[in-house]
Design a protein that fits this description.
18 helices; 11% strand; tRNA-binding (chains A, B); ligase (chains A, B); ATP binding (chains A, B); two-stranded antiparallel ribbon; alpha/beta; Rossmann fold; homodimer; EC 6.3.4.- (chains A, B); ligase activity, forming carbon-nitrogen bonds (chains A, B)
Chain lengths: 390, 390
């Protein structure tokens, strides 16, 4: 049985994602396509515009046979850790191939992944406070491997390749050319494709006008965006402001990734700004990317400490969000070979603070509060009856 | 120079308070009347319906010569600690008399205060989990002193008397009969007097209709209530809900007054309720009064730990909110004899986390966020020009 994995955020799922799902299945001749998807918070440190159950449903409707959740501890991380979490999860699920979108699909990811995996860990050496970690990593790749990375998906692809090369049994890498829209496009052009960030830009406007979104997303996404309440950072701003103001320095310092005295900047600027965007602007230095700052803001908001992240990473699991008949059949076969616990329903024990999914349950409480939905307890994996991709 | 002190919350200031100010001055033949007033959070664990500067202004307009702030660490406390903080502050300010409203003005507060002050501390003995601390204290007073306390202001009066009796040089006690409305009255009756809680009840309704409030408050209070945005618990509810959900048990346990496993109840009920009132109902047991629970909710919301309270109590100060010409003249004379620091303006050092007013600044940040006003930095004591009581 041929099994192909896709690493995704679907924030939200658009025509390009659906194309990628189809291409991945076709090119790899997969019997089963598994999507490993971020939960309610995404890699760049933002809440997802639709909750994880809705996005899992969209993935199933767009052709996925199974959707599993990439835990918060791996999802809200820089590219290398995000990639490691996702690749390990897909390998655990028995995937022989991992497919991903790329601006440079012809690139030899396999070889570069092996080269990077062979390098000693360098992060400790990136101590130039005038440059971001990402910039120093790029410079290091440039110097050692003559590798130049300009595109975010290219960086993710290389990160997948490196994480994959570290596996005992690496998977096949399948880069799929991105359609038309490049990731950073901020305006929706005419045509069937636009980037998720361009779509989020539309959603951020009040009142939301979905006219330009309709041509670039499947009907299921359109329906979800029309009927469901999403979460975006501006909505979280009063809570973040309150949190920073009510947290003494010594406590703020304990937040995950709050390093190099960043807590002093937080306490200083919070009294000077009146919006989330202004906060980010005020925090920005040459040392930190916006993505990094957004992740730290999310760790502050969700009260995330190092130990919570470490505990989750040390006790991996497979969290099912949904599947169709094909996925269910494969699941039966997979169960015997899984070494990680398979989580379908969350018991009180699993969801308790010290439980396997304690962190996931806790970070989702805010999502539950804001959307008035259940995200963990009282939920079970979706079963998708549809046979065809819409 | 005769100096009389009044302990108040003015939440909000009504005709009964103005009458009390007049009576206190007249009966004690005071040259100077000093009000010691709660800041932005009051004794029963609620935010004040008008901020402390506004309420200080109302006090000056109603006849006070000087207004000082009772620090959060003393203000948001049970009657005995509230009384101790306020009495110590008025004694520091050179008051010879302390006046207070009472439902039983003819009662011999002086004698009972001395008797209570002579008793050994009993709080550690009140361990019946089926009864509130207040109930057990009342029962103890009943047994040892044949004293029965039914009215909240009577309890406060007795607490003032006890705290006063513990002073090296006790002040004169002056109980002033409350006019008409009893404190617990929940409806505004016809006439010039109503309780502050009856007024707050009107303010809690949306939209607010101040028609019934007008006859029972001075014009200055009416103007403030008409033009200023207050804060009430329902407005804080989303923040409290978020706070409880994002705080692990081990951290919640560190909150001031979170004892006897109360943190487990908080974590359990927070997922079952959808309003502040419902939360209080769900938390209520025979062991805790609503006032106690409200204070714990406030400590949770404001992230108050034991150490922060202790540090403030151990380093007392006099915080000026406002004065008139009489107050200013007295202040000049007073400065020489003060043993506590006199705070007019808050410097960066005083307001820093470890500074003398660090806790005050921190708890007020939330008020600043919600009302979009400055509460500490950039404020200086009010100078009231008006010569007469309106």
């Amino acid at each position: 049985m041929k099994v192909t994995g896709i690493i995704a955020e679907y924030n939200p799922l658009h025509n390009g994602h659906r194309y990628q799902l189809q291409q991945a299945r076709q090119t790899s001749q997969a019997d089963v396509v598994i999507v490993c998807m971020s939960g309610n918070y995404v890699q760049r440190g933002e809440p997802a515009v639709l909750d994880k159950w809705t996005r899992a449903q969209l993935a199933l409707a767009a052709g996925a046979d199974m959707v599993v959740e990439l835990p918060f501890a791996s999802a809200v991380q820089p590219a290398d850790r995000f990639a490691t979490g996702a690749i390990d999860l897909l390998a655990q699920l028995g995937c022989q191939t991992v497919a991903f979108g790329s601006e440079e699909a012809a690139f030899d990811y396999q070889t570069i992944g092996q080269k990077i995996a062979a390098l000693p860990a360098q992060s400790a050496a990136f101590v130039d406070y005038q440059k971001t970690y990402a910039t120093q990593l790029n410079e290091f790749y440039q110097q050692t491997l003559n590798l130049s990375i300009d595109q975010p998906n290219h960086l993710l692809g290389i990160s997948y390749a490196a994480a994959n090369a570290r596996l005992a049994q690496p998977m096949q890498l399948l880069a799929i050319e991105r359609q038309q829209a490049q990731h950073a496009d901020q305006l929706i052009q005419t045509g069937a494709y636009a980037s998720a960030s361009a779509i989020r830009k539309v959603l951020a406007h009040t009142p939301v006008d979905l006219t330009t979104v309709q041509p670039v997303v499947p009907a299921t996404t359109m329906a979800a965006l029309t009927t469901q309440q999403g979460v975006q950072w501006p909505q979280l701003w009063p809570l973040l402001q309150y949190r920073i103001n009510s947290t003494p320095l010594a406590e703020l310092r304990q937040v995950y990734q709050m390093s190099e005295g960043l807590e002093y900047r937080f306490k200083k600027v919070i009294t000077q700004v009146d919006s989330y965007e202004a906060l980010l602007q005020a925090l920005k230095t040459k040392r930190y990317t916006y993505a990094r700052l957004q992740r730290v803001c999310l760790y502050v908001l969700l009260n995330i400490k190092d130990t919570a992240i470490q505990q989750t990473l040390e006790q991996p699991y497979v969290r099912l969000l949904g599947f169709n008949q094909v996925g269910q059949t494969y699941l039966h076969q997979l169960k015997k070979q899984l070494t990680w616990p398979l989580i379908s329903k969350i018991s009180a024990k699993l969801g308790a603070e010290t439980g396997l999914l304690g962190l996931e349950v806790r970070v989702d409480r805010l999502f539950e509060q804001l959307t008035n939905t259940h995200q963990n307890f009282a939920r079970q994996p979706l079963f998708y009856q549809g046979k065809d991709v819409e």
